[in-house]
Specification:
The protein is mainly α and 148 residues long. The chain has one domain. It is built from six helices and two strands; from the N terminus they run H-E-E-H-H-H-H-H. 24% of the residues are buried.
Length: 148
C-alpha cells in the first residue's frame, strides 16, 4: 500500500511540475533560471542550493544542478525507484536538468518522509559537518530565512 501511495504522490508531483504555472522561464540577465513550483519549500531549497542556477558544480563535493545533487543521492534514488517499481533510472548528468533534479528531490523527500523541515534538511544536507564548517542547523536556519 505504501508503494502505491508513493507512486501516486510522485505522479502528482510530476503533473504539478509540468503544469503551465510550473514552467522554467529564463531570466534575461544570463544563465539564471527560475523554476516555478507552487511549493515554497522546494523554491527555498533551490534558492539555497544554487540560487536557481542550472549549471552550478561544487568543486569539493561534485554536487551539480539547481538542487546540488550528488552521485550518492542519484544511487539512493535509483534504489528507491527500483524498490517501488518506478521505471526511472537517473544519471548524474540528469542533475543539470531542473525538472529531473526536482523529481530526484521529491522522490528522496517523499521516500524518507521527514516529520518536519528540520528532518528534511538533515535528509537533503546531511547530518555531518561540511568542508566549510556548515551543519544542518545552519542550513535549516538559512532555509527558513528564505521561506519568510
Amino acid at each position: 500500500m505504501k508503494k502505491l501511495i508513493l507512486l501516486l504522490i510522485i505522479w502528482l508531483s510530476w503533473l504539478q511540475c509540468h503544469a503551465p504555472e510550473s514552467k522554467i522561464i529564463p531570466v534575461p540577465k544570463g544563465e539564471i533560471f527560475y523554476l516555478w513550483t507552487s511549493c515554497p519549500i522546494e523554491r527555498a531549497f533551490i534558492r539555497l542550493e544554487s540560487n536557481f542556477k542550472t549549471d552550478v558544480v561544487n568543486s569539493v563535493s561534485g554536487a551539480i544542478g539547481v538542487l546540488q545533487i550528488t552521485t550518492v543521492m542519484i544511487a539512493d534514488v535509483n534504489k528507491i525507484c527500483k524498490r517501488i517499481g518506478l521505471k526511472r533510472h537517473y544519471k548524474i548528468q540528469d542533475a543539470f536538468s531542473p525538472e529531473k533534479s526536482l523529481e530526484i528531490f521529491r522522490i528522496a523527500i517523499i521516500w524518507y518522509d521527514p516529520a518536519d523541515l528540520q528532518e528534511a534538511c538533515k535528509i537533503w544536507f546531511g547530518r555531518g559537518r561540511q568542508h566549510d564548517g556548515w551543519t544542518w542547523k545552519e542550513y535549516h536556519k538559512k532555509l527558513v530565512g528564505y521561506l519568510n
